[in-house]
């Protein structure tokens, strides 16, 4: 198309948006989305909305729907620099579904939003592959999503991801603060690494202050820095659901931004206090590396990073042995990290005591 002056006219492609590339990306991702389907999934990828058969909820006496949404923060910058894009979606699923399971909800379905500066079909498909694989691990269906091309807002190699999920829990099985009692045990479930929080601090210390390359072999880590920083976030949802089904659980806390104390405090009732003993575990080396290299105060480190604990289960004393055995069978390292006591006047909801092992 040309204008009256004979010059080429404006077009969406000339403005930086490639519709054909977007269509190619959708075709490439379809096989991965298909792997996530549950029996309740309806339709195929490509509609204007995702469909899920809600008649399955008839099996509940009083179903409560739970919803959560999240992203992965600046961890995407590591994926972009390494040109590895098939794990960041796994992180996205973990950050969303592990928030849902805190109340005891089973994740049912998820949608994603991928915003790119320029559509590279294979890259978008790789991101969706990671999301789909994460959904399989979480037991939820990926029912749809959106890929948006924003030239001028993001660079050609830049992108961001976000997602939302819906789950369901029986009303009388709802977990939370009202179930917690004095004498309950605080069980820590090991993190797989940094997970997807605090990367702005980690990048500032290791990449900017130290000037380390992501390809650098780090003896303390036993692998390259990039491999450590891209380690996918552990997905706990099916493990937590199994624990709540086969044992007795009073509450969960997903340890994300705000650290262990800040997130555990969110589920502690008035009048009760959780005392966590640092001496019950040794944080993986990456946490000490960030703290020592950046001269980060321990309080700041604990407020920003998970320090090796990605999820906490609060259980009654009689359920401790069974809970630890079940988690061990499922391959989740876990240990008793503290207990719940009566809260004295002036006490915080949660305290971390002692030094790390």
From TrEMBL:
Pathway annotation from the record: Purine metabolism; IMP biosynthesis via de novo pathway; 5-amino-1-(5-phospho-D-ribosyl)imidazole from N(2)-formyl-N(1)-(5-phospho-D-ribosyl)glycinamide: step 2/2
BP-aspect Gene Ontology terms: 'de novo' IMP biosynthetic process; adenine biosynthetic process
Occurrences of domain PurM-like N-terminal (ranges): 64-169
Catalysed reaction, written as an equation: 2-formamido-N(1)-(5-O-phospho-beta-D-ribosyl)acetamidine + ATP = 5-amino-1-(5-phospho-beta-D-ribosyl)imidazole + ADP + phosphate + H(+)
Family matches, as Pfam families: AIRS, AIRS_C
Keyword annotations from UniProtKB, A to Z: ATP-binding, Cytoplasm, Ligase, Nucleotide-binding, Purine biosynthesis
Enzyme Commission number(s): 6.3.3.1
One Gene Ontology term, aspect cellular component: cytosol
Ranges of residues in domain PurM-like C-terminal: 181-345
Ligase found in the keyword field: yes
Location of the protein in the cell: Cytoplasm
A Gene Ontology molecular function term of the record: phosphoribosylformylglycinamidine cyclo-ligase activity
InterPro entries in UniProt: PurM-like_C_dom, PurM-like_C_sf, PurM-like_N, PurM-like_N_sf, PurM_cligase
Family: Belongs to the AIR synthase family.
PANTHER family on file: TRIFUNCTIONAL PURINE BIOSYNTHETIC PROTEIN ADENOSINE-3, TRIFUNCTIONAL PURINE BIOSYNTHETIC PROTEIN ADENOSINE-3-RELATED
Protein name in UniProt: Phosphoribosylformylglycinamidine cyclo-ligase
């Amino acid at each position: 198309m040309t204008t009256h002056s004979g010059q080429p006219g404006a077009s969406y492609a000339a403005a930086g948006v490639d519709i054909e590339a977007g269509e190619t990306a959708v075709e490439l991702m379809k096989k991965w989305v298909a792997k996530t389907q549950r029996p309740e999934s309806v339709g195929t990828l490509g509609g204007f909305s995702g469909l899920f058969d809600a008649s399955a909820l008839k099996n509940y006496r009083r179903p409560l729907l739970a919803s959560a949404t999240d992203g992965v923060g600046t961890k995407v910058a590591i994926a972009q620099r390494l040109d590895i894009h098939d794990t960041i979606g796994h992180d996205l699923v973990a950050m969303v579904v592990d928030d849902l399971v805190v109340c005891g909800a089973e994740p049912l379905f998820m949608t994603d939003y991928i915003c790119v500066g320029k559509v590279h079909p294979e890259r978008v498909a790789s991101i969706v592959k990671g999301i789909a694989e994460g959904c399989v691990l979480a037991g939820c269906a990926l029912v749809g999503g959106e890929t948006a091309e924003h030239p001028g807002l993001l660079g050609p190699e830049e992108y961001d991801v976000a997602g939302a999920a819906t789950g369901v829990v029986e009303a009388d099985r709802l977990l939370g603060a009202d179930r917690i009692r004095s004498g309950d045990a605080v069980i820590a479930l090991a993190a797989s690494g940094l997970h997807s929080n605090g990367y702005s601090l980690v990048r500032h210390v290791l990449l900017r202050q130290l000037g380390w390359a992501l390809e650098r072999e780090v003896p303390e880590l036993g692998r390259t820095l990039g491999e450590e920083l891209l380690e996918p976030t552990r997905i706990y949802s099916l493990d937590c659901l199994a624990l709540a089904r086969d044992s007795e659980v009073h509450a969960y806390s997903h340890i994300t931004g705000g650290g262990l104390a800040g997130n555990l405090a969110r589920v502690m009732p008035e009048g009760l206090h959780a005392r966590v003993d640092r001496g019950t575990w040794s944080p993986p080396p990456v946490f000490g590396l960030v703290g020592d290299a950046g001269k980060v105060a321990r309080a700041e480190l604990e407020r920003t990073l998970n320090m090796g604990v990605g999820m906490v289960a609060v259980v009654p004393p009689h359920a401790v042995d069974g809970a630890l055995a079940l988690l061990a069978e499922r391959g989740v390292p876990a240990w008793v990290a503290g207990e719940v006591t009566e809260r004295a006047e002036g006490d915080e909801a949660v305290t971390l005591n002692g030094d790390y092992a």
